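Weekly structure sync, notes
Attendees: PL, DS, HV (note-taker this week)

Item 1: MOSC domain containing protein
DS walked through the input record. Source organism listed as Sphaerobacter thermophilus. Sequence as pasted into the shared doc:
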Amino acid sequence: MTGRVVAVSRSATHTMSKPNQPVITLLAGLGVAGDAHAGITVRHRSRVARNPNQPNLRQVHLIHAELHEELRRSGFNVAPGQMGENITTEGIDLLGLPTGTRLRLGAEAVVEITGLRNPCKQLEGIQRGLMKAVLDRDEHGNLIRKAGVMGIVIAGGDVRPGDLITVELPPPPHRPLEPV
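Item 1 (cont.): predicted structure, written out as tokens:
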């Protein structure tokens, strides 16, 4: 299974949207160089308030461009980086991957998927109704989170728009993604 990088984004401050960049550098065990969420321990403000010593399983945020298209068809105007993601992908069902999947991005970088992004109310600041639009229910009434996946950096390297993404599934049994 392969896909490609559509856009890369980072922000040195805790803003919802992250400006697109020509390249980002992933740092093993830390995250995106120059991004507010990079670090060994959690950097997300609400999680730091609860326990600042917990490991950072949210070093890199990835969203599939197909979600942006789905949202546009529903009347939302969203662009890569606007929902806080570092890497916008295309051609990979990120939400369908099991926990522990590794994504090879470009020539060197490897990100291991740790879980689902739990969408936050800040999405409403982008456009009213966006939070509800990235949540759904399956046929059993279970909540479906569509706002992307989170990961940790296993191997560092530069990532650019247009880079190839190769998916490496973990050994079975596969565990479905849960919010992190």
